[in-house]
Amino acid sequence: QAQLTESGGGLVQPGGSLTLACLASGYRTIAGAFAMRWFRQAPGKERERVAQMLPGGTTYYPDSVKGRFTISRDRTNTKIFLQMNSLPPEGSAMYYCNVNTTWGRGTQVTVTS
Fold first, then answer.
1. Whole-angstrom Cα distance, residue 75 to residue 61?
2. Using the 8-state DSSP alphabet, how is residue 89 labeled?
3. Looking at the predicted structure, is the pLDDT value of residue 32 above 60?
4. 90: helix, coil or strand?
5. How far, in Å, are 25, 77, 96 from residue 40 at the CA level?
6. What pLDDT sits at residue 60?
7. In whole angstroms, how large is the CA radius of gyration of the chain?
8. What is the DSSP string of 13-44?
């Protein structure tokens, strides 16, 4: 059974950086088959897609994070990363990994001084 497990969340000061990781298990390979995405959801707000990597490697970022967030995967194709730089306070949210129809449980990121 496919599973996604996020890690790397925590407290960070405004302007700081954080790298999230998502471990994919139960897949033969996540590369070349599925789109990989990172979403975030803050309390009282809708879930927002913040990064996407298509099977061919094409990436997408909304304007709100473009230039500051980077999605990547490791060479074993079992981990997906989200590098986040220059985080503002509004970056506080639960961050979720998504591959195909599978979701992780999320990892909390709190940006505060």
1. 22
2. G
3. no
4. helix
5. 21, 22, 6
6. 97
7. 13
8. -TT--EEEEEEEES-S-STTTS-EEEEEE-TT
